[in-house]
Amino acid sequence: MSNEARSDRFPHEPVLVDRVLEYLRPRPGGRYLDGTLGFGGHTAALLAETKGGAEILGLDRDREALEQARVRLIRAWPNARLFVRKARFSHFVEEMAGVGWDFLDGALLDLGISSHQVNSPHRGFSFLRDGPLDMRMDQDGAGLTASEVVNAYSPKELARIIAQFGEEPLAGRIARRIDQTRRQHPIETTLELVRVVESAYPPTRRARARNHPATRTFQALRMFVNDEIGELAGFLEHVVPWLAPEGRLVIISFHSLEDRLVKHFFQDQAKRCHCPPRQPFCLCGHQATLRILTKKPVIASSREVAVNPRSRSAKLRAACRLVEV
Ligand SMILES: C[S@@+](CC[C@H](N)C(=O)[O-])C[C@H]1O[C@@H](n2cnc3c(N)ncnc32)[C@H](O)[C@@H]1O
Questions:
Q1: Mean pLDDT of 68-94
Q2: Are 229 and 257 in contact (CB under 8 A)?
Q3: Rounded to an integer, what distance in angstroms lies between the CA atom of residue 55 and that of residue 38?
Q4: The predicted structure's pLDDT at residue 1
Q5: Pocket test for ligand 1, best of 12, 20, 24, 60 (most atoms within 8 A of CB)
Q6: Predicted confidence (pLDDT) per residue in 6-59, tens digit
Q7: At 321, which helix (H) or strand (E)?
């Protein structure tokens, strides 16, 4: 990637850029979906790599991010065939139809939220900054907010959400503490919720913990509010038939549930037959559709982690569409 693209500092530093280029192999004239455009860091790299020649459909559900990405990318590549649309990536088929595309040479998802979203107190994603308990990536609609979940869901349901999406061992205690607090007054801000979660942590555990006690609870609420696992599953369910032969699929995840989903999906698609192992001959007739390019997830180098700490938990998996036989 050019130094110009590298030094183009933006509110979000993209992760694993060189590896994305290595696996996506963008070429001039190729058509690429960036399903999580964010601030356009990866798309800028794809354009730089192809001297502005790649065609890109960039989606994001966050209007603030899209506006900034649009300005940045159009300024740098005024003649590029770049389509920026506000949409969820699980709706990529409709968005492709809207720009007249019927195949993809590559698709990229860089999951989770951007540094800009975390660092904007009014979005309510951060347990370090006070703000409304919102956590919606798309603030335009009437979607569920974290405040509605925290103040209205049953303690049992809250515990399930915090355990499932946050993998928080103290989920039950935290849910009960939330319930006790909200019986007195609604929990309306991020720092109010932080105090409640902290109060559920025994002091010895708090002292030993590597992360802030609210890390897992905030992550769980964010994933639930934005249906992040449902979005990923919906995308995977439909994407393969839209990939051209040899088309690439690159997914960067930051959560073990997401990474597991991608790993199992790739393994499933790479298998020729889905019949039970003891069945003597194949009845399912399933054909493999993908070749896995990353045996293990690709992670950031220690050098990248030092300059971009967000890359610490990034896991990249890539696969390639098999040519029909
Ligand atoms: C990690 S950031 C992507 C950063 C981007 N690759 C860059 O270089 O700037 C993730 C982005 O994906 C968006 N996002 C997350 N889930 C989404 C979904 N289901 N549909 C569309 N956008 C989504 C978020 O709003 C956020 O802007």
A1: 96
A2: yes
A3: 17
A4: 44
A5: 60
A6: 434 567 799 999 999 999 999 999 999 999 999 999 999 999 999 999 999 999
A7: strand 315-321
- Predicted TM-score (pTM) of the model is 0.93
Residues of the chain with CATH 1.10.150.170: 139-225
Residues of the chain with CATH 3.40.50.150: 3-116+228-321
Tokens in use for 145?
């907010």
Q: How far is the CA of 113 from the centre of ligand 1 (A)?
A: 6
**Residue 15 CA, closest ligand 1 atom number:** 8
**Ligand 1: which of 9, 10, 36 to mutate, most ligand atoms within 8 Å of CB?**
36
| Nearest CA owner, ligand 1 atom 19 | 88
Is-contact 301 307, C-beta < 8 A? Answer: no
Residues having CB closer than 6 A to ligand 1 are: 12, 14, 36, 38-42, 59-62, 65, 88-89, 110, 112-114, 137, 231
pLDDT tens, position by position, 224-260: 999 999 999 999 999 999 999 999 999 999 999 999 9
| Distance separating alpha carbons of residues 23 and 26, to the nearest angstrom | 9
Query: 139-225: what fold?
Result: DNA polymerase; domain 1 (1.10.150)
CB 252 within 8 Å of CB 109: yes
**CATH code of the domain occupying 3-116+228-321:** 3.40.50.150
Residue nearest to atom 24 of ligand 1 (CA): 113
Q: Which two tokens stand for residue 243?
A: 């990939």
pLDDT attached to residue 303: 95
Torsion angle in degrees (nearest 10) through CA of 61, 131, 217, 297: 40
Per-residue pLDDT reduced to its tens digit, 97-142: 999 999 999 999 999 999 889 989 999 999 999 999 999 999 987 8
Nearest ligand 1 atom to alpha carbon 138: 25
The minimum-distance atom of ligand 1 relative to the CA of 88 is 20
